[in-house]
Target: CysZ
Amino acid sequence: MLDAAVKALSQMISPPMRSILWRSIGLALVLIIVLAIGLQRLLSWFATSGEVWLEGLLGPGWHSSLDVLSWIVSIAAGLGVVFGGIFLMPAITSLVASLFVDDVADIVEREHYPAEQPGVALPLSQAILEGVKTALLTILVYLAALPLVLFAGAGFLIFFLAAAWLLGREYFELAAMRFRPPEEAKAMRRDNAATIFTAGLFIAAFVSIPIVNLATPIFGMAFMVHMHKRLSGPRPELIAPARQLR
Model:
């Protein structure tokens, strides 16, 4: 697993990958700004009008709880773009990865597995759908853990573990679906859940590093291409005829 991570890191700055890397970083920056500003405005609305609306919906018995929640949200809104840039990064990288999955995987497969049949490119709509689902689930998990971040350090651990599970899950399935039907790819992920979660810890650590985390889609996808190959084991049906004759 460590060897796969090292290979992914070293290939990120290789000439064939640089164009994808810069495009990925540029798109991630745009999404960070747009989503962070949108989140800041949403939180600002909730800290003012939203509290009144929810109290009218839930009843006066929720007044104290909503006051506390409004205070938490006010702090989050005050952090603005910085808050969004940090806590939305895993969701953003999920969206970006869905657009570059095949570009990255093709380069990794050509360089490290030249004697094997390359994977089949995913339909763009399917890749984007997977990215959107992971991004939305990430945001929901993070919002649920937000009060724990503000009141206890355990929230940061929850963020990290959630990112490891969510990102490991998405990147592995995207890599696997180049060779397998979606249901088979998901079943393989479930069968190797512990290994993929451990691999996801590498991606979660990468996405936790400011600035560097803009390249998470490249690292995560390259890393999981290697992991899928290793978990697949010997697959004669994927080996090119020239290799079979050896």
